[in-house]
Amino acid sequence: MIDENDLSSPMSHVKGSGPSGTGTSTWWAQRVSAVALVPLVIWFAYFVLKAVKLKDMNELMSIFISPFPTMLLAVFIVIGLYHGNLGIKEVIEDYIHCHKLKFILIIFINFLSFLTAIAAICALLVFHLSTFSFN
User: Fold this and answer.
1) Residues near 93 by Cβ (< 8 Å), separated by ≥ 6?
2) Where does residue 73 rank: exposed (0-12), middle (13-18), buried (19+ CB within 10 A)?
3) Which letter, b or e, does each residue of 26-47 get, where b requires 16 or more Cβ atoms within 10 Å of its Cβ?
4) pTM: predicted TM-score of the whole model, two decimal places
C-alpha cells in the first residue's frame, strides 16, 4: 500500500529487493566466495597431489605440524560450505513454491552446513594436535 505522505520515489521502494527480498547481497556473497575459492582449490589440488606421492603416514603428518596448512584447509572447508549453502538456498528459493517447505529446507540446509563445518574443523584440530605425538 502506497502512503500518500511518503516523499520517496517509487524506485526507492523496489531498489535492492529481488525475488527473495535480499537484493544483491546474496549475488555478491556468491561471487566473492567463488573468487576466494579459486586460489584455495588450486592449493588444495596441489596439497592432494603432494599427499598422494608420500610414502607413509609420518610424512603426511609432518605436513600438518605447521599450523599454516591446517588453517588453509579449515578456510577452504568453511568458504566452500558457505558458497555451497548460498547456492543451495538460491535453488530452494527459486524452485520450491510452498513457503512452509521452503522455510523448513532452508533451516535444514543452514543446520547441515553449520554442523558439517563444526565437525570438519574439530577433525582438523584433532588431526593437527595428534601430529605432535608422531614426532
Assistant:
1) 19, 20, 102, 106
2) buried
3) beeeeeebeebbeebeeebeee
4) 0.77
Number of domains observed in the structure of the chain:
1
Q: What is the DSSP string of 37-71?
A: HHHHHHHHHHHHHHHHT-SSHHHHHHHTTSHHHHH
Residue 125 lies inside a defined structural domain of this protein? yes
For 63, how many CA atoms within 13 A lie in the half-sphere containing its CB?
Answer: 19
Count the helices and strands in the chain (H runs, E runs).
5, 0
How far apart, in Å, do the first and last CA atoms of the chain sit? 70
10-64 tens-digit pLDDT: 665 555 555 555 568 889 999 999 999 999 999 999 988 888 888 777 777 777 7
CATH of the domain at 93: 1.20.1300.10
DSSP state for residue 124 in the 8-state scheme: H
Q: Which three cell numbers stand for residue 57?
A: 603416514
